[in-house]
Amino acid sequence: MIDLRQQQIIKETTARFNPSLVGVFGSYARGQQRVRSDLDILIDFSHRVNLLDIIGLENELSKKLGIKVDLVTANSLHQHLRPIIERDLIRIT
User: Fold this and answer.
1) Each residue's pLDDT tens digit, 18-62
2) Fewest CB within 10 angstroms: 23, 26, 71, 87, which?
3) In angstroms, rounded to a whole number, what is the distance separating the alpha carbons of residues 49 and 91?
4) How far apart are the C-alpha atoms of 18 and 45, rounded to whole Å?
5) How far is CA 20 from CA 37, 41, 59, 68, 83, in A?
6) Given phi > 0 = left and psi -120 to 50 = alpha, else beta, which region is 76?
7) Do 93 and 19 form a contact (C-beta atoms < 8 A)?
8) What integer pLDDT is reported at residue 18 of this predicted model?
9) What are the structural domains, with CATH classification, of the chain?
């Protein structure tokens, strides 16, 4: 399960992009993570953010958290995956 320290790091690191939504889903949200699990983070913006900034943010989060982060934008979600992700989602912002 994602802890409060990790949530704070995610919140502080993503704040400069002013996201409309940040949340964790997948194994960390369900408390089923393993040693090699990545941390799945859903992020959404009400404004345009370029791909290089998103990749940089993903790398920065991975480094700060010490966990491989998979950053997924809400716009990139397939409609069939959205309900599955939303079911597990722990909203951070």
Assistant:
1) 999 999 999 999 999 999 999 999 999 999 999 999 999 999 999
2) 87
3) 20
4) 7
5) 26, 13, 20, 23, 18
6) alpha
7) yes
8) 97
9) 4-91 (3.30.460.10)
According to the model, what pLDDT value does residue 9 have? 99
Share of the chain residues as helix, strand and coil, in percent rounded to the nearest 5: 45, 20, 35
- Give the pLDDT score at 20: 98
What H or E segment, with its residue span, contains residue 11? Answer: helix 4-14
Taking the C-alpha atoms of residue 20 and residue 78, their distance in angstroms, rounded to an integer, is: 19
Residue 13 φ/ψ region, left for φ over 0, alpha for ψ in the -120 to 50 degree band, beta for the rest: alpha
State which amino acid sits at residue 46.
Answer: S
Residues across the chain: 93
Q: What 3-state DSSP class applies to 92? A: coil
- For 25, the token pair is 């889903």
